[in-house]
């Protein structure tokens, strides 16, 4: 053998050896351990929701009066008979969140012991707040304190203040800790099921294994249908109201009138921005828009605090924070028992029907996409960090926001002979802009900021809803950006049809009907929470090892099918370094 042959051999062999020694590519985690959905079930999940939604829309558009009357009667039935249920449900979720954050299960890390958070805390807080309540606070932070300022229960009126203090405290309550605990309890069920047990990020997989085996398939289909329908109708009606409020914002500083053509243009812009965000992904799209939301929100609140009635705001925040803590339990359990002595003629005769029951139903109806998205972005957080981050931090943000914006609205309402109240009475969505009109120096600038916030907050809500909806419809397969764009366009089309053919009355009817749908869905959520508690209590060494294996990217761990359609992990005899 020549020297040249030896050199060539020496040059070849290391390359061949290196190629053979390359490890196989790591697998995506969490590994799928859920049920493979039968083709018939998948077909039902894809076809029934659009069919039912089209049927509901046709009914409401062709017979708006009859539809509104029927839905109003259902709302009266739910309010009159089941106010106690919604009150106890809200308290139950708060209790569950307290247990999760204070017990030993709080140390469990979503995604296994070595999982790392995918987003910074600022981006995480921004995204969960934006998808949960951003657009709601823009709408209600002025409207609710103004509408409740003359009469509200439980909170004793302060000397000389009438019921203004109670109005702000009730707004804290409706948009603060309890509402976020209701989102959190659902989100942690989905997060643990998906990140730790390898299930799809769906209500079906988080719920049905507590049921008898014979009923799990049918129950899973029903649960998924409810979640999909609630998400589509909730997003579509919110799309309509966001267009109306954005138009109100434009009118406040441009003089532009609100017309169907403007609504269509606004819907098209919102849909376009959401499509771009859906294409580029959560990290580049949703996270950046949510961070912009947070910055603009800080600008808005700081501007009102500095240039508004600063002393009044600080004093009112101090007073109402104390009142909220002193009356939290009483507000949480208040059912207005006196009205149950006789059958309720109309939900409008019940204060809870206007406020607490209405808002709790709203939260339940929006839980599918809000909780689904929060669960998706929370991998790597411990359950304790998750619960505190989803409840305490947003609650503090809500209370500061309402304390500044709501107190300013009441102050300027007093100073202008109820001008803000009159504006809210004419158009609830115009409340924030009516207050900002009276702010010296920077009022117009902050109107522009608030109008932009309406757009960006809704885009993030729609974006998060699309990600959750795509999981519900396509699981266990991954949805691509094209599919998410199709969902955006479909929901935008529904909103357009509602607004252009039916107007605001029809949009309000469909949204109320969606909220009434929260009544049956609340039983699904209760069952899912009980299933989470069962899973955590039964979590033994085998389950802990399974959680590690599911989140182990080592390709030497392989799948084998179980007879019931689920997947199981089979490890090699000598796992060696695969133990974590």
Gist of the model:
The protein has 580 residues and is mostly helical. Helix content is 74%, strand content 1%. The model is unreliable at 1-20 and 572-580 (pLDDT under 50).
Structure explained in plain terms:
It contains 21 helices and 2 strands. The protein has helices at 3-21, 39-62, 64-102, 121-132, 134-148, 164-175, 177-196, 203-207, 213-254, 260-280, 282-307, 310-333, 351-354, 356-376, 383-415, 419-426, 431-436, 443-474, 481-516, 518-537, 541-550; strands spanning 558-561, 567-570. The chain has a two-stranded antiparallel ribbon with strand order 1-2. Strand 1 (558-561) and strand 2 (567-570) form a beta hairpin. Helix 6 packs parallel to helix 7 and helix 6 (164-175) packs antiparallel against helix 15 (383-415). The longest helix is centred in the middle third of the chain and has 42 residues, at 213-254. The two termini are 50 Å apart.
Write the topology of this structure.
Elements lengths: L2 H19 L17 H24 L1 H39 L18 H12 L1 H15 L15 H12 L1 H20 L6 H5 L5 H42 L5 H21 L1 H26 L2 H24 L17 H4 L1 H21 L6 H33 L3 H8 L4 H6 L6 H32 L6 H36 L1 H20 L3 H10 L7 E4 L5 E4 L10
Antiparallel strand pairs: 1-2
Helix pairs in contact: 2-3, 2-9, 2-19, 3-7, 3-14, 3-15, 3-19, 3-20, 4-11, 4-14, 4-18, 5-6, 5-15, 5-16, 6-7, 6-12, 6-15, 7-14, 7-15, 7-20, 9-10, 9-14, 9-18, 9-19, 10-11, 10-18, 10-19, 11-18, 12-15, 14-18, 14-20, 18-19
């Amino acid at each position: 053998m020549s020297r040249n042959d030896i050199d060539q051999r020496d040059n070849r062999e290391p390359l061949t050896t290196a190629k053979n020694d390359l490890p196989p590519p790591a697998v995506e985690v969490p590994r799928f351990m859920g049920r493979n959905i039968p083709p018939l079930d998948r077909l039902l999940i894809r076809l029934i929701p659009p069919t039912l939604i089209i049927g509901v829309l046709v009914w409401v558009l062709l017979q708006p009066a009859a539809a509104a009357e029927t839905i109003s009667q259902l709302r009266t039935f739910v309010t009159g008979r089941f106010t106690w249920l919604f009150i106890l449900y809200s308290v139950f979720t708060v209790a569950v969140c307290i247990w999760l954050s204070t017990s030993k299960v709080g140390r469990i890390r979503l995604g296994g012991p070595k999982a790392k958070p995918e987003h910074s805390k600022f981006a995480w807080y921004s995204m969960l707040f934006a998808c949960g309540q951003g657009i709601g606070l823009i709408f209600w932070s002025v409207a609710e304190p103004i509408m409740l300022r003359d009469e509200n229960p439980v909170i004793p009126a302060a000397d000389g203040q009438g019921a203004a203090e109670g109005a702000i405290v009730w707004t804290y309550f409706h948009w603060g800790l309890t509402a976020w605990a209701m989102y959190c309890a659902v989100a942690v069920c989905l997060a643990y099921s998906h990140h730790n047990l390898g299930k799809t990020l769906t209500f079906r997989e988080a719920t049905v294994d507590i049921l008898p085996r014979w009923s799990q398939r049918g129950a899973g289909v029903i649960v998924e249908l409810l979640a999909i329908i609630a998400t589509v109708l909730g997003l579509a009606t919110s799309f309509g109201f966001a267009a109306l409020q954005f138009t109100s914002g434009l009118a406040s500083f441009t003089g532009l009138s609100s017309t169907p053509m403007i609504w269509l243009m606004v819907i098209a812009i919102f849909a376009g921005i959401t499509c771009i965000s859906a294409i580029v992904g959560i990290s580049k799209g949703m996270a950046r828009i949510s961070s912009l939301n947070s910055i603009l929100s800080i600008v808005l609140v700081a501007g009102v605090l500095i240039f508004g009635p600063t002393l009044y705001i600080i004093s009112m925040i101090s007073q109402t924070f104390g009142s909220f803590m002193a009356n939290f339990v009483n507000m949480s359990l208040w059912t207005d028992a006196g009205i149950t002595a006789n059958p309720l003629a109309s939900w409008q005769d019940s204060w809870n029907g206007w406020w607490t029951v209405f808002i709790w139903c709203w939260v339940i109806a929006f839980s599918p996409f809000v909780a689904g998205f929060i669960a998706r972005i929370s991998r790597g957080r411990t359950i304790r960090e998750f619960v505190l981050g989803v409840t305490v931090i947003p609650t503090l943000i809500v209370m500061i926001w309402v304390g500044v914006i709501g107190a300013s609205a009441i102050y300027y309402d007093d100073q202008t002979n109820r001008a803000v109240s009159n504006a809210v009475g004419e158009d609830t969505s115009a409340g924030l802009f009516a207050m900002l009109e009276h702010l010296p120096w920077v009022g117009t600038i902050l109107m522009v900021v608030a109008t932009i916030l309406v757009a960006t907050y809704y885009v993030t809500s729609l974006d998060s809803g699309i990600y959750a909806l795509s999981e519900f419809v396509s699981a266990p397969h991954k949805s691509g950006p094209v599919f998410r764009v199709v969902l955006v366009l479909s929901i935008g089309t529904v909103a357009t049809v509602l607004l252009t053919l039916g107007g605001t009355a029809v949009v309000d009817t469909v949204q109320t009907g969606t909220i009434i749908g929260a009544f049956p869905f609340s039983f699904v959520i209760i069952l899912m929470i009980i299933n989470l508690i069962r899973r955590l209590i039964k979590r033994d060494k085998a389950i802990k090892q399974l959680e590690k294996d599911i989140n182990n990217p080592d390709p030497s761990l392989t799948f084998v099918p179980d007879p019931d359609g689920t997947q199981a992990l089979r490890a090699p005899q000598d796992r060696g370094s695969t133990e974590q």
